[in-house]
Amino acid sequence: MSSLYIGATGMVSHGEGIAVIANNLANVNTVGYKQISLQYADLMSQHLTASSADLTNCNQKGMGAAPLETRTLFTVGGFERGSEATDLAINGIGFFGVQKDGLTQYTRAGDFRFSKEGWLLDPSGWNVLGRAIVNGQEAGSATPIKLNLNDEGIGYMPPRVSALVTSCSNLGGLADKTSSSANPFFSLASSWNGIGSPPLGEQSYAYRETIEFYDADGIRRTANIYYDAAGDSGGMKAVEYLVAMEPGEDASGLAGTAAAGLLMAGTITFASNGEMASMTAFSPPASGNPTDLSAWTPAPLQDGLPVFSVTPREASAGQSISLDNGYVFAAGASTGVGQNSAADIVSSDVFRNSTDKSLKSRSTVALGESPSGLYFSTDGYAEGYLRYVNVTPDGIVRGSYSNGQTEDHWRITTYRFTSQDGLRHEGGNHYSATTASGAANEGVPGEENFGTLAEFELEQSNVDYAREFSLLIVTQRGFQMNSKVVTTSDLMLQRALELKR
């Protein structure tokens, strides 16, 4: 009788083994699926009546087998090319976090897509978790990822008004096109005529650089920096410059005057090695007369850079812009080099190497015999519409916009567990935390033991075909042999019953 029972337990156990193998093979193409292995154990043992008190071994016989536990093999599966940047694979240990109706679960399957409302979802409709990035600052905890969309369901970036313009040039070989015996360092400023056409003739300056900036409404505007040589003295080379826009585009208080369009003027001196030695910067006269040099006052400073004010025509507001040519004034310094107005700089005291300054690694120089532009940039931009999203290896969800700008919106979080073997399978490629797994530890890709992300990649099932088919053969043989035990035991019982006849 016991052999019937034992054979039956063997059939049941191997039947469960076949089911586990079948599940592995059924999920051979399931994204992020992890192979499961069934462990067996002997069921129990029965003590036998001892025929002798001298037996030294435990007098028992086995009573069958039973499935003990299933173990999930969390080795990383192979990667397959995905179709979208939100097809993500974790290279290393860790899980994505997903949430729905306040319930959090975890998955290795990174086949995510954005909904029309901007939510990043998995195929089961669960929200993917990440940390919001606002003004470059990353939040401390994870929430469902959602893009900011306008009323039309389109990702939108509002315009940014320019507050900084960087313009670095090589001013070597400048000619002296305009000179004035009254003040040789502000000949360009005195020559400007905002009610003339053009306000400054081409014969009045040696070199011109066009700069761009964006107004408060995100409209691109242009201005010019005019350069002209202003003589040499004491081994220093002097250059005068003038920053101006088209007078017709000027809506400031200077509009309609001879100073219309003027934004800033000043001087730059260069040492023999071509580096900037000193600089001045003056704001245009409120009187509207550019020839009144006494009305040109030292320009204000912002972070060591001279600032000019501009009010473009049809702009909703005026703005202040710092001009960066690589020369940074020291704290407390004056852009007038201690002077009160442009009229005070009439002698060679401008030709000195100022100690109230520092130079950036990228700065205006005077080398060679041909002036040229070296570098230009502005921190403003027009409005933009989201073109596409990409995800970096460290989990940054970065949007690229039609205005050429990029913006970091979110950072996808990943999770790990003290014992990932204790996770409970929930279906839909999800796992949930249990007391056996421990609570989830939140981190971000790129940190130690949190893996990295690969975009346009999907992690495939880690099922080993050869292993599964080998186990299938072995398990089938085990089931077959146990069934033979049952049939043999049944025949023996039939023979025993026939003895009474």
Task: Put the structure in a nutshell.
With 501 residues, this protein is mostly beta strands.
Structure commentary:
- The structure is a single chain.
- This protein has 501 residues and is mainly beta.
- It has three helices and 37 strands.
- It has three domains: 2-49 and 57-75 and 462-498, no CATH class; 95-152 and 386-445, no CATH class; 164-378, no CATH class.
- Helix content is 13%, strand content 36%.
- Strands 7, 8, 11, 12, 13, 14, 29, 30, 31, 32, 33, 34 and 35 form a 13-stranded antiparallel sheet that branches.
- α1 (2-26) packs antiparallel against α3 (465-498).
Main attributes of the structure:
3 helices; 5-stranded mixed beta sheet; mainly beta; 501 residues
